Amino acid sequence: MENTQSKKRVAVCGGGVIGVCTAYFLAKKGAAVTLIEKSSVACAASGKSGGFLALDWCDDEAISSLARTSFNLHRSLSDELNGPENYGYRPLTTLSLTVTESQTTSTSTNAGSSSSILPSWVDGVITSPRTIGSPETTGQVHPKLFTKTLLNKAVNDYGVEVVIGKVERVGVEVEGGRVDSVVLEGGRVIESDSVVLALGPWSGKFEMLSSIFRVYGLKAHSIVVEPKEGASITPHALFLSYFPARGGKALDPEVHPRATGEVYVCGMSSEQEVPDNPEEISGDPDSIQVLKRVARTVSSHLGEGEAQVKAEQACFLPCTDDSIPVIGEIPGAKGCYVATGHGYWGILNGPATGAALAELVIDGHASIVDLGRFSPTRFVRRIKV
């Protein structure tokens, strides 16, 4: 019923999972959406994270309603987009394990636990296995494939335009303080009625945001291995307490088999300076070597000779000082919204964040999730005290 000229023009800045989900739901509600990405879609954490989903793991945290809503949205999006085939959506059994690294570098081939809950491919020295997630409460997607599948749907069915360019600034009217455009490096101006800044850890480098709150980058490492006997690797996500052979503090890596036949292993995170170019991010060699040891210690199927290392990588997770995402309208800039700071749960919470922001931008309020707890105004209030 709306013609093109009457549609609300929205510029979404950032081609990660949060930006893409927001663009998708905005366009589905009838907005004319331009998605602006500096490098390439899902080139950072949205392409290099685990893609783990959990219904109730955040129930004691501020993001509880966001997580539960988003977990269910992932399920409905999978039905809509044929998630099992297009981006590896599937339910999982999730286990917690204690793993002790051998003093030798050889792969262990005898199971360290006779527990019936352990899948046969987990054959390292394992103790204290327990189930912490069922197929009803935990699942996964391949994050890059999910993000790209959703964007393709948004482009092909709802007319989202994708522009590759670096956002230099947001244009704000002198009178009224309302946004009217996004200005790209090189001078291109994209006129907009509303703007969404979904810049992930690069939010901390954007003055309009960094003047209000801090977003820092947590550098997390991962490897992707492809075992020769991929069919034997069952859908069990593993969360480890890992004790290195040389002693010291236990590590907490994770092992996530994927429907593609690959196995994703991650961990070794620390706060570091976020580089300007996401394409320049590489893993620290020592951290990558630890993850290779983790893989072969957990399973003989994941060690050298039995699996090919497909990727050695790192990404930056966007984190806030209070560990709560920032989602809402920016104080002093009417029509300009932010969505960042999702930390480890960006892939999980992408759909609900995007759906809620679409409601906020188009309808003036969000009904799918109460965004009050996530508003950037909480930082302004703190400054005034």
Automatic annotation (TrEMBL):
<dbReference type="InterPro" id="IPR006076">
    <property type="entry name" value="FAD-dep_OxRdtase"/>
</dbReference>
<dbReference type="Pfam" id="PF01266">
    <property type="entry name" value="DAO"/>
</dbReference>
<dbReference type="InterPro" id="IPR036188">
    <property type="entry name" value="FAD/NAD-bd_sf"/>
</dbReference>
<feature type="domain" description="FAD dependent oxidoreductase">
    <location>
        <begin position="9"/>
        <end position="360"/>
    </location>
</feature>
<keyword id="KW-0560">Oxidoreductase</keyword>
<protein>
    <recommendedName>
        <fullName>FAD dependent oxidoreductase domain-containing protein</fullName>
    </recommendedName>
</protein>
<dbReference type="GO" id="GO:0005737">
    <property type="term" value="C:cytoplasm"/>
</dbReference>
<dbReference type="GO" id="GO:0016491">
    <property type="term" value="F:oxidoreductase activity"/>
</dbReference>
